[in-house]
Design goal:
This protein is of the alpha/beta class and 245 residues long. The protein has one domain: P-loop containing nucleotide triphosphate hydrolases (Rossmann fold). Helices cover 37% and strands 27% of the residues. A 6-stranded mixed sheet has the order 6-7-8-3-9-10, with helices on both faces. A 4-stranded antiparallel sheet has the order 2-1-4-5, with helices on one face. Helix 5 runs parallel beside helix 6.
């Protein structure tokens, strides 16, 4: 069953001679419980697509449906509630609050939603433990490595039990070892916890963890590939495909 549906989605920035088409009539359907990566050259519309699906931006034309609901038809309050309770967001630069501990950062979405601090903290600690950070719960971001900070961000994204995780270049600011850890953690969200993950990445090695790869070029989908076999073989195939596009 499709949890994300995109129909004739377009996004144009600016007007007249300065208009730039970031997306051009994109159609896409993503089933629940799948890990999908979006790849393509810089400026191809990857992040724009992710932001439109997440309701962080408005399309120029077309529709985005989440669990059958057209998010463009929602009032601001409804869209905010959808994002807060149905979606988790992970970004390249972690976006953690420096003065808060790992547990406090992870609990923040629940606290903003009115959950009592004791319950919010317990849920945050649960997800930090799942992300192998229970022993770092009291540490601030500047006391954590980049990979650890991103695992805090994953815990924060999951604390509200969303059905969809949207990750924008989640390994783009990490070394190879930490990147593999984050890709594995995202894979686990799908395999072990049944979530749907949509990830934008430029790295074929990280994309190889996904079930399906969507390639964008000039705002259009130019290839849609299901992944089979070993991750190392998939990474090699993806690298060759990226170079050919």
């Amino acid at each position: 069953m499709a949890i994300i549906e995109v129909q004739n989605l377009s996004k144009v920035y600016g007007a007249g001679d300065t208009a730039v088409s970031a997306l051009d009539g994109v159609n896409l359907s993503i089933d629940a419980g799948k890990f999908v990566a979006v790849m393509g050259p810089s400026g191809c519309g990857k992040s724009t697509l992710l932001h439109l699906i997440g309701g962080l931006d408005h399309p120029t034309a077309g529709k985005v449906r989440i669990e059958g609901q057209d998010i463009a038809a929602m009032k601001d309050e409804q869209l905010t509630e959808l994002r807060r309770r149905k979606m988790g967001f992970i970004f390249q630069f972690f976006n953690l609050i420096p003065v808060l501990s790992a547990a406090e950062n992870a609990a923040l979405p629940l606290l903003l939603d009115g959950v009592k601090p004791a319950s919010a903290n317990a849920k945050a600690l649960e997800w930090l433990e799942k992300n192998k950070l229970a022993d770092r719960a009291a540490h601030r971001p500047d006391e954590l490595s980049g990979g650890q900070q991103q695992r805090v961000a994953i815990s924060r994204a999951m604390v509200s039990d969303p059905v969809i995780i949207l990750a924008d270049e989640p390994t783009g600011n990490l070394d190879t070892h930490s990147s593999d850890e984050i890709a594995s953690a995202l894979r686990s969200l799908v395999t072990d916890w049944g979530r749907t993950v949509l990830m934008v990445t430029h790295d074929p090695r990280i994309a190889a963890y996904a079930d399906r790869i969507i390639f964008l070029k000039d705002g259009k989908i130019v290839d849609d590939t299901l992944m089979t076999g070993e991750a190392s073989d998939n990474a090699r195939r993806l690298k060759e495909k990226v170079e050919s596009l």
